[in-house]
Specification:
The complex is a heterodimer of chains A (about 80) and B (about 150). Chain A is an alpha+beta fold. Chain A has 3 helices and 4 strands, in the order βαβαββα. The mean pLDDT of chain A is about 95. Classes of the chains: A alpha+beta (about 80), B mainly alpha (about 150). Chains A and B meet through helix 2 of A and helix 5 of B.
Chain lengths: ~80, ~150
């Protein structure tokens, strides 16, 4: 499973939450691929996924959260996809 | 009032004068006021709106933000951000980046529409067949008629 976090450089909110979210994802999906993408440098990818607000989070190439989720929200979403 | 004339900050301008300097209509300024984007500094005894020079900067801000694709609600938020002590440049940068993403998304959608029309136009040989046989009209009626085939 692959998680992509689109962020804007200098986003303190993203920096603060990133490690917790990454750890939360790892708990549910050990070895999960975690990528952090500067939306300005990865504009085409962001547009392709439909990202219009930052930060946004995509799972397996699908935009799932258009703002930062809580750790619990992310874990719930990952668990749903794991079993589904 | 001629364009580019320096207006002292303490001078109050009527709506007609400030509209002329800012190169917008008086109706536009009234509309901005209804949208809570600008407010007259005072009203004359006769009830006429009076503006300070600062209003010119604000009008210029609004016009140029519109040229970058921001709608009036977004401009109102930008103006509020500008007045927020705790905000800094990166907050504005994020807003600008989000607007760029929205614009790119619209461009992508419009390109898809244009490609769909190109395909429809190619289907039509532009001959004098009756409308009942028009492939463009038929494709628009058909289920998935404008979707790219093989996808």
């Amino acid at each position: 499973m692959k998680i992509e976090l689109f962020y804007t450089p200098g986003c303190e909110k993203c920096a603060a939450a990133r490690d917790d979210l990454k750890a939360a994802a790892e708990e549910v999906i050990p070895g999960v691929t975690w990528r952090e993408l500067n939306a300005l440098e990865e504009l085409d990818s962001a547009v392709e996924l439909g990202v219009v607000t930052l930060p946004s989070l995509a799972i397996d190439g699908q935009l799932v959260f258009s703002s930062l989720p809580t750790c619990r929200q992310l874990q719930r979403e990952l668990a749903k996809r794991k079993t589904g | 009032m001629p364009r580019g004339l320096v207006v002292p900050s303490n001078v109050h301008l009527t709506i007609g004068k400030i509209a002329s300097v800012a190169q917008v209509s008086a109706d536009t300024l009234r509309y901005y006021e209804r949208e809570r984007l600008i407010t007259p500094a005072a009203k004359s005894r006769g009830g006429y709106r009076l503006y300070e020079r600062e209003a010119l900067r604000r009008i210029r801000f609004i016009k140029q933000a519109q040229q970058c694709g921001f709608n009036l609600a977004e401009i109102r938020a930008l103006l509020a951000l500008r007045a927020t002590d705790a905000a800094c440049c990166r907050d504005v940068r994020r807003v600008a980046l989000e607007k760029k993403l929205q614009l790119e998304s619209k461009i992508k959608a419009m390109k898809a529409m244009s490609h769909a029309l190109t395909r429809l136009i190619k289907e039509c040989s532009a001959d004098s067949r009756p409308l009942d046989d028009c492939p463009i009209l038929a494709a628009l009626e058909r289920e998935n008629g404008v979707k790219r085939r093989g996808r």
